[in-house]
Every structure is written in C-alpha cells, then in structure tokens.
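tool=predict chain=A
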Amino acid sequence: MITLKKKYKGFSLVEMLLTIAILGIITLLVATTLTTLIKVSVVSNVKNQARNDVNFIMELMQRSLGNSNVGDITLYDSKAVRVFDTESMRVVTPVGVGSVYDAQEIVETVPSNEIHVRSYGYNVWTCIGFFLDSNIPEDPEGTRYGYLLKTNRYELEDHSECFDQNAVVMVLHNIDVKVEDFSVAYLVVGDDGDNMFIISTTVFPSSWPTGFTAPVSKEITRQITVSSQGLTWY
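tool=predict ok
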C-alpha cells in the first residue's frame, strides 16, 4: 500500500508582515492624497463663493451709484449706534441714533457704513448698510463680523428710518461668508462734474478645512471707484 503525502504551499510569516506593511504604506499615501484633494476642493469652493458675493456687492453698488445724481446720495457712519440682530433679522439701535443722521451734506473722504441712494427719476431710496452682529462677540484676534444689508423705502424724508426696526432687510451675501468690513467714501474730482465714491469691502469664508496649511489666504478684499453719472438733458 502506497501512502501519498500532501505537500502544502503558502506564505511565511515574514512575507505576510512585509505585504501588510506595503499595503499600509500605499493606503496611507492614497488617504493623504484624497484628504488633500478634498481640502483643496473645499477651499476652492468657499473662496469662489466669497468672490461671487463680493462681485455681486460691487456690481450692485456700481449700478446704484451710476444711476444717481450726487444730490440723491447720502452717507452715514452708524456702526457705533446700530447692530444687526440675527434672531429677529432686524437692525436694532440699543443706545439711540443720536446725531448720526443730522448731517445734510456728505463729508469728503470720511468712510461710512451706510449709503442711501435714490435713482434718477424715482422716489424709491435704496439703503445699503454694514452692521455688526449683535450676538457674536469679538474673536480672539479682536475682529467682529457683520452683515451687509439692503432695504428699499418709499418717500423717505427722515434717513434714520431707513434701517429702523420696521425695515424689512435682505442680506446681500451667503450665510457662509463673513463680512469683516465695508465702507464707502466720497471724493470730489471736479467742479459740478462727476463725483467719485470709493467702495471697500473685506470678506472671509466661514468654512475652512482644519489643518489646511497651504499658502492660501482666507481674506478677500475688493476696492472699486464708482462715478455718479448724473443724467443731463439737452
């Protein structure tokens, strides 16, 4: 009787450990690459959102000012007396407006956070203003963020009513975009000619990948100059 002996073949323990180590390294490299690609994609998306919002804001300002006479444009610095309550979605005045809206003429080169514009031939005032968020304190770097708001008022006589508590406001940017600053300054460039307005704004994407160390700045700053192109009849 002949006895057949079975011969088994397989991997040794050293070969198995080496294979596991190689697979682990490859998996780690793939995971790191995918994580980096995802972070880059998120950064690109949030930066594009912030850029789109800034471009929309600047285009709105350019159209509003470009269709108005300088006599139908008023600027006010109300950041010290008014804030935006995100719970009620209303602009509130905790300490009263004081004499903020008493000025009858625009002060040259003084930056303001509110601009009220009436297009040529219309009785509708477009009010655009930047107000700090009353519910969010300063961040560790001492910066406070706010909202850029817009509202329309008919037959406006008292400009302090433009952003009172009864005003229905519209936020001009995405909720994922933080606005650090917005200002409008007036500059005279000629006698009875066109007048220039310097508009500046700084925004940040509120979402940012944790641990993203690439040299990409979160801040987006835009500054434009707009001429008040008053219409002339011949």
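The beta strands are 73-76, 83-85, 90-92, 114-118, 124-132, 146-154, 170-171, 177-188, 195-205, 220-227. The chain has a mean pLDDT of 83.
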